[in-house]
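[09:14] KT: can someone run the structure on this one? pasting the chain below
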Amino acid sequence: MEQIIHIYTINECGKKCPLCCNKLYNVDEIPVVTVDELYNADTICITGGEPFLYNELYKFVDNIKMQYPNIKNIYAYTSGTALLHYLNVNHDKPLNLDGVSIAPKDKTDWNNLKIILLNETYNKIISSMKSNRLMIFDNQKDNFNQILNDVNLDMFNVMGRKWQNTFNTPTNEIFRRLPILF
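[09:31] RB: done, C-alpha cells below
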C-alpha cells in the first residue's frame, strides 16, 4: 500500500477561517517526520498554514525529489491567493509539483484563481501538473459560479467540500511536521 504523508510546513496563512483545521491541534504535538517515513513514502502532501507563502518552496520540492527518489508524487494545498503571489515571484522557476489542491475561502481567493487561470504562463504551469483538485465549500458555490463561469477548469478534478469540526487523517495516511517550520 502506498504511504501518504501530509507534512505541515508553515504556521502562517493570512486567512481567518472559523473552522480552520490548524486550530484543531497543537502544532508542537504533531510528530516530526522521520527519514524512515520519507524513505517509505510514495506521496507527500505539503500543507500548513499556507505553503505558498514560502517563496522558495520550489527548492524544498526539488530537495525532497532529489533525496527521496521513492517519492512519486508531491502535492501542495492552498487557498489560491498565496499561489498567485508565489507565481508572480517565481514564474521563471520550475515548481516541480505533481499537483495542487486549491480550496478558495473567500471572493479574493476566487478572483486570484481566475487571474492564475487566465494568465497564459501561470495556466501552463498549473495545467502541466498531473493531478489538480479544486475544492468548493458549500458556502462558496455562488462565488465559484459567478467568478469562474467562463474559465476552462479541465485541469482540475472539481470536488465539493464541507467544513469539519474535527480533523482526522485518513487511516492510510500520516500527518507530520517539519522539525523547523518555514
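[09:33] KT: thanks! The beta strands are 4-8, 43-47, 73-78, 99-102, 132-137, 156-161, 173-177.
[09:34] RB: yep, looked fine to me
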